[in-house]
Amino acid sequence: MRILAIESSCDDTSTAVVEDGRVRSNIVLSQDEVHRPYGGVVPELASRSHMRAILPLIEAALDRSGLTLEDIDAVVATYGPGLVGSLLVGLNAGKALAFARGLPFLGVNHLEGHLLSPQIEEGLPFPYVGLLVSGGHTSLYFAEDLGVYRHLGSTRDDAAGEAFDKVAKLLGLGFPGGKAIDDLARKGDPYAISFPRARLKSRGNGAEFDFSFSGIKTAVALWLEEHPADSDTARADVAASFQEAVVDMLLETSFAALRAVGCNQFAIAGGVSANSRLRARAAALAAECGVRLIIPPMRYCTDNAAMIGYAGWQRLARGEQHDLDLNAYADLTL
Ligand code: KG4
Ligand code: ZN
């Protein structure tokens, strides 16, 4: 089955062709340049940029796959969660194509795309605990089987990537700031400043492994008010200490969840999985605990249509499809 996949949930436009779970092409157009002057994603500009990009990117994904529209058997597109104006562009392009060519159509949950992304190249079998950590999400799931995902916890406020971006702004590092903090932190001492680690109590709703990142962002802001970081060393120490605290919170909670569900496979996906300290510490902890750690290649970690095509393929193969009146849902859950 040859699938054309479209992803436009936030600020990256992406298209892919996936054949029986194998990625034939995957193209991502970042909008970072569009949003950089504003220090964050501007929803109206995001939808307008998706509109401009979507048709050329569909053609490009087909070209690069060596196929034409005639060779495509089904169309899939992300239908949530995300910015609704952004989602609608990709979803409607997908539905229109499916309608015009009389092809089956399926809407894919963006979070399921991320959660299944470790299977694309590494072939990670179920069950595993998946940490989705990006600018928009920080959630833990126990993926037991296709469509059987136990939600173990989520952030109660900011996503981890959002905290990286906000602290980068405080340090004057620009947007998006995760990579800049990662680079700066290499020159700093992760133990220089002891920022608070939020440890949350269960709310008794089954989601026992929640996160919180707004406190640390405020702690960094307060610290900078009292200790102007006017030297490179001081700024590097703030970056390294902040990053260490975030990594501690992410890994402590994830490994507690792994123990609680009795699972020894752990996957990390989403843009923050690019973080070098998170990768190094996760690898060390996994080795220590006898856990198999999978972090997909970066192109499948950040937002991309290949993971949407892969998840769509799994569901289409089970006979699922959606009617063409499928709507976009900003708050779609998994
Ligand atoms: O998955 P993604 O590309 O887009 C969504 O948010 O859905 O993730 C982007 C996020 C941004 O917040 C960015 O600052 C963060 O991932 N990020 C990083 C690193 N590279 C990207 N955070 C920490 N360290 C990095 N090396
Ligand atoms: Zn995402």
Features:
Nucleotidyltransferase, domain 5; 10 strands; five-stranded mixed beta sheet; globular; alpha/beta; 334 residues; binds 5'-O-[(R)-(carboxyoxy)(hydroxy)phosphoryl]adenosine; binds zinc ion
What does this structure look like?
The chain is of the alpha/beta class and 334 residues long. It has two domains: 2-114 and 301-317, ATPase, nucleotide binding domain (Nucleotidyltransferase, domain 5), CATH 3.30.420.40; 127-295, Nucleotidyltransferase, domain 5, CATH 3.30.420. Helix content is 45%, strand content 19%. The chain is globular, with a radius of gyration of 20 Å. Bound molecules: 5'-O-[(R)-(carboxyoxy)(hydroxy)phosphoryl]adenosine (KG4) and zinc ion. 5'-O-[(R)-(carboxyoxy)(hydroxy)phosphoryl]adenosine binds next to helix 6 and helix 7.
Helix-strand blueprint:
Elements: E1 2-7, E2 12-19, E3 22-30, H1 32-35, H2 43-65, E4 74-80, H3 84-101, E5 105-109, H4 110-116, H5 118-122, E6 128-133, E7 138-145, E8 148-154, H6 160-170, H7 178-185, H8 214-226, H9 232-261, E9 265-269, H10 276-289, E10 292-294, H11 298-301, H12 305-317
Parallel strand pairs: 1-4, 4-5, 6-9, 9-10
Antiparallel strand pairs: 1-2, 2-3, 6-7, 7-8
Helix pairs in contact: 2-3, 4-12, 6-8, 6-9, 7-9, 9-10
Bound molecules: 5'-O-[(R)-(carboxyoxy)(hydroxy)phosphoryl]adenosine and zinc ion (ZN).
Zinc ion is lined by residues 110, 114, 134, 136, 270, 303.
